[in-house]
Design brief:
4-stranded antiparallel sheet; about 180 residues; about 15% helix; alpha+beta
């Protein structure tokens, strides 16, 4: 009985030592399949992508967690933001002016919105620059994106005014991104 215990202990020690040695060949692939604490998954959705703010007050933090200090506070619900990175339930966002920081994913929504970023943009009745102008949208006007195809997006702004705007006149949608 004493010999058998020694053999088991010795065998366990050899197995433990072999397991702790650097692996080569096929063994390395097994180690890579296991997630480590350094690998943190987000939503699995493509990055970058656009989203919008869910609330009138959204704290933007210096890092991905509530322990990081608040850098500033967004005060405009439905403001479009670009998600540029993810860490667990935290999203690094960038606004239309280029400022970035981290927000909790619960403060974002997938509803698509836009902002007029630079100069006044025309809102047309149909998707053609020769169409009737329904409204002139000043810089910093927010609106909801209904659909996009080609160079045009169908949008709705405050007061229920709807129409078509050229993609180049707004921020919140990629150049060739289809939105249905």
């Amino acid at each position: 009985m004493g010999i058998r215990s020694s053999v088991l202990v010795c065998g366990f020690s050899v197995a433990l030592a072999a397991f702790s040695l650097p692996q080569t060949g096929g063994g390395a692939a097994l180690a890579a399949d296991k997630p480590t604490s350094a690998q943190r998954k987000g939503s699995g959705l493509p990055i970058p992508r656009f989203a919008s703010l869910r609330s009138d007050e959204v704290n933007v933090r210096t890092g991905p967690g509530s322990r990081y200090p608040v850098d500033w506070v967004f005060k405009r619900k439905a403001m479009p933001v670009e998600i540029v990175a993810e860490y667990e339930n935290w999203r690094k966002i960038r606004d239309w002016q280029g400022a970035s920081g981290w927000v909790h994913q619960s403060l974002l929504t997938g509803k698509r919105s836009f902002i007029i970023s630079a100069k006044t943009a025309s809102l047309y009745k149909t998707p053609a620059s020769s169409a009737e102008v329904v409204a002139k949208l000043e810089p910093e006007v927010l609106g909801e994106i209904r659909s996009c195809a080609g160079d045009w997006c169908r949008v709705k702004v405050a007061g229920g005014v709807s129409g078509w705007i050229e993609r180049s006149g707004m921020w919140g949608v990629y150049k060739s991104e289809p939105i249905n």
